[in-house]
Design a protein that fits this description.
5 helices; globular
């Protein structure tokens, strides 16, 4: 395995760990409730936690500040947009009334978030590291 491959795996591992913490440990009910409104702070706060977490992760992995900040800003915008979209298209689906559709929306949302980390890793390994 090449050093570049090992580094890419560390980047993915770190971003996925950060994602777990930000989405499942540091996301509070008021954030979830407010994700669908551009006028409320909940969605911005949640996306901000993701961005700050990425700043920490990418800095610890040795990336320069320019790349760290650019990737964090991109993640903030993408994460907010994905969550805002899910709030408008999927949050009306009840896990009790339509469990299959509910989990499909949840899975699609997570798929898009994880795809963001794959793209971030590609950018880091290809252009930054």
């Amino acid at each position: 395995m090449t050093d570049q491959t090992v580094f890419a795996l560390w980047v993915m591992f770190a971003l996925e760990g950060k994602h777990f913490a930000a989405d499942y440990l540091l996301q509070f009910p008021w954030m979830i409730r407010e994700k669908g409104s551009l006028a409320k702070i909940g969605g911005y706060a949640h996306a901000g936690i993701h961005a700050v977490g990425s700043v920490l992760v990418l800095w610890l992995l040795g990336l320069g500040w320019g790349a760290v900040l650019a990737l964090a800003v991109a993640e903030f915008v993408i994460h907010y947009a994905l969550d805002f979209g899910k709030a408008h298209y999927g949050d009306h689906v009840s896990p009790m009334e339509s469990p299959r559709l509910f989990w499909a929306f949840n899975g699609l949302d997570q798929f898009f978030h994880h795809t963001t980390y794959i793209l971030m890793t590609y950018v880091i390994v290809t252009y930054v590291a």
